[in-house]
Structure formats: C-alpha cells, structure tokens
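Weekly puzzle thread! Below is a chain. First person to post its structure in token form gets bragging rights.
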Amino acid sequence: MQDSLYTAGRRGTGATVLAEKIAGARAEAGGSLAEVAAVATRVNAQARSFGVALTSCATPGKGSPIFELGPDEIEVGVGIHGEPGRRRVPHTTAAEIADLILTPILQDLDPSPGSSVLAFVNGLGGTPLIEQYILFNEVAKLLGERNIKIERSLVGSYITSLEMAGASVTLLVLDDELVSLWDAPVKTAALRWGM
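Winning reply:
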C-alpha cells in the first residue's frame, strides 16, 4: 500500500491485535518459538489494515492536536500513534467511507472470490460503538458484493489513538489453522472467549 505523506513506510494498525491473539494461541498450544513466529509472520502477510480519522488526538506531551482538520474533512490512512495519513477528503457517508477504506485493502491483499476473512472494525478511541457497527455493516455489504465471506469478526476499540474519532478496518484472509487459533480460548483484558 502507499506510504504516508508524513512518515516512511507502512503503519501497524488493527492487524497487530490479530497477530498477537493468533500467535498467543499457538504459544499456548505448546508451539515452538519458530512456530509462533511463523504464524505471526503469516498473519502479517495475509492481513491489511487501513484507518481514517474524523479528529486528531492530543498526546499528553504535546497537549494539542497532532494535526488540524477542517470541520468537514477526514484524514485518510492514519496511524495508531495519531500520525496523519495519506490525504484529506471531504466528510461523507459511512458507505463511502467503507469503500474508501476497503478499496486499498482489497487492491493490496487481493483475496480470491470465495475467500473467507476475519473482518475487524476498530475504533480509534473517540468513536462510539454504534458507529463502529454502522461501519461494519457497510464493510459487510461491500465484501458480500465481492463474494468474500466474513467468517469471523471483531468490532470495538482495541488499539486506539487516545481520543481520536475514527476507525480502522482490518481484513485477514483465513485458513483452517488461523480459524482454529482465533477460536482458541482467550482470557485477556480485551479479548475473552471459550473460557
């Protein structure tokens, strides 16, 4: 994917959560360090994330917003540390924002029609859960139109940029092993199931 205008290289966003959960499950199952590293590397290769911000965040050290947005602008391609993204566009509907996010993800990831994915909508800190579910619904519609099945999903504010309003979407192309490791019991502060 295209680099940010402000920093070198890609940004880690929501795929971090998926890699940590899945690698953790492999470790919990007794996997060797090499096996844990291999599955984390595979998640990284099979996942893409993209975020948009409706507001900036203010870091405690700076005390003021990292970047300024006009009242009708959104920042496209933001990082999880509050970094600005690739460009600014006019604020628009949830459906158009979902398309704006999914287009570069799908171009870069290039999942085959009929693929199964884990779809993760992540709030960036200041986005109400209901708005995250509205975005998820639009993402699900667009993926359905492309014959991509959401086999697993996660919605919530799991990796945030302090109080930034906005969201990221992550898609992870699944296979049987990744589904099994995702479904494995987990008991952490953020993720809890199967216990």
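Puzzle host: Confirmed. Bonus trivia for everyone else. The first helix runs from residue 15 to 28.
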